[in-house]
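Protein in question reproduced for absentees:

***
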Amino acid sequence: MRVGLPVIAVVGEALIDLVVDGEGCVAARPGGGPFNTARTLGRLGAPTTFLGRLSGDAFGHMLCASLRQDGVALGVSALSTAPTTLAVADVDTAGAARYAFHLAGTAAADLDYPTLSAALPDGLTAVHVGTLALVMEPIACSIERLMADVPPDALVMVDPNCRPAAIGDRDAYLDRFEGMMHRADAVKVSLEDLDYLCPGVPAEVAATTLLGEKLALVLVTDGPRPARAFLPTGEVSVPVPEVEVVDTIGAGDAFGGAFLAWWFANGLGRDDLRLAGPVREALRAAAAVASQTCTRAGAEPPWLAEMRSVSAAW
């Protein structure tokens, strides 16, 4: 299937990353997996609407300004009276982050189904959903119900971005994730996600198990090691460009957003996800964007003009 101008909705949480460096200094930066994904899409030129609840506090206004600057529409305009959701990120010497979350009673959770459904854009081409929004209420149940509202020809990508520290009931979480798979077309996971979803199972087996008979595609990232895609017809992989890493915050989110941005920019749609050639090229483009995100502090994906100057994939 070939599509015209895409209409992409990214559903989930926005939050503030309180990034603590080795000297104990704290920097407040925009974050949240879906929020980062939406910003990546916007910066890469894909028409995108973010469906998440922002707070009316100062952090919420910061998040709103970030969306505007990146060309992303805010689908839920009414601001919550609850405070902005927070994640405290301790960054190690390799640039990897360890997170602690402050979720209860915060704005990202404050989104019911009627509000979310009413905000779904017309002419929808794709929906990206995931991360902490799948463990916070009432937004988690709202997202489950929303899947029935997504047009059957729209591409659905799920990125669980599993955060064990935020998951109180693992069995309930896995049940919800399993339910999402009935409408998903593609799943983007890290090696850590696979280990949480299928503990003790080799990555290739876990990815193939996820693929099952319903999904068209499972994307697997593993830091600086090759990015892989599992399709019904087999596996493809591409190397990840070497860069000087500042930190890895938001790199996985940028990967998923970049995959979708490249996919639709090249006239591809839901029915093309089983084509190994285009998937390989989209992997290459996504890996390039994720690598560039690692070269700057916090979740700051590159702009399309930047990518065109550093990567032939764009």
In short: The chain has a mean pLDDT of 94.
